[in-house]
Hints:
Layout: H1 3-9, H2 13-20, E1 26-31, H3 34-42, E2 47-50, H4 52-58, H5 69-82, E3 87-90, H6 98-110, E4 115-119, H7 140-153, E5 160-165, H8 173-186, E6 191-194, H9 202-210, E7 217-219, H10 229-234, E8 237-242, H11 245-262, H12 277-284, H13 286-302
Parallel strand pairs: 1-2, 1-8, 2-3, 3-4, 4-5, 5-6, 6-7, 7-8
Helix pairs in contact: 3-5, 6-7, 8-9
The structure holds sulfopyruvate (SPV) and magnesium ion (MG).
Amino acid sequence: xxxxxxxxxxxxxxxxxxxxxxxxxxxxxxxxxxxxxxxxxxxxxxxxxxxxxxxxxxxxxxxxxxxxxxxxxxxxxxxxxxxxxxxxxxxxxxxxxxxxxxxxxxxxxxxxxxxxxxxxxxxxxxxxxxxxxxxxxxxxxxxxxxxxxxxxxxxxxxxxxxxxxxxxxxxxxxxxxxxxxxxxxxxxxxxxxxxxxxxxxxxxxxxxxxxxxxxxxxxxxxxxxxxxxxxxxxxxxxxxxxxxxxxxxxxxxxxxxxxxxxxxxxxxxxxxxxxxxxxxxxxxxxxxxxxxxxxxxxxxxxxxxxx
Length: 307
Ligand code: SPV
Ligand code: MG
């Protein structure tokens, strides 16, 4: 883990804060490891979302508070090490009560992560978009306590704590979502994430139109994919997160290719295109090593080790 790298190259908390101040909607895409995070960066996104759904899936485990904080942190840290854009870590319910949240904020901040997001559901949580999932909300006061702990634990004031409001997911409507979001801002949230599982953006727009707070609003339009950036921006959304598309694209490509390969006579018998090794060498920065080898060789020559 290398904190200085993230800060030097522009991927730290300051970078995310100034991006929010830039006056346009920010586009964030989900990643599940360092490679996918780097692809998010190379594709031109503003930030990386280290999502619990995708990271859990790469362990072939449910997104249901099964992995530990240490495991999620390790995944997010590798993303921050590989990227020069901010990484926003999805920290589910904060891995426990206020003391756990306090510890969590210190660890994530120390790892060069720009922001953490915690949601107001009870532990163990289940993925918000799971058909028939259990979506019980934590009492507002208990979540406010976690936000206070998070605010008090950060050492860099630019480090952001995003409060994820699950009232719409729990079927309680935009009024309750606004009431809770307002309380969460008072308790120290630096942004609020309004999540919805509806097939259209109506209830998210209702939330946005009634929102009187001053911190940015974040949305994840997985269940209402036809909404445009322009529409979200018109309703005051400051950041959109395309949370799991990279995971699902990777899953689809691997499943298709492996399926073909399993019944093929040779490697060339699988039709789904795969990346040339050259593309992977470039992503790994393999040629940097070749360059370094040349530099070392030149230095050894100067020192008289080589003719
Ligand atoms: C995630 O990507 O892990 C999220 C968003 O939390 S969702 O899967 O829609 O709950
Ligand atoms: Mg999640």
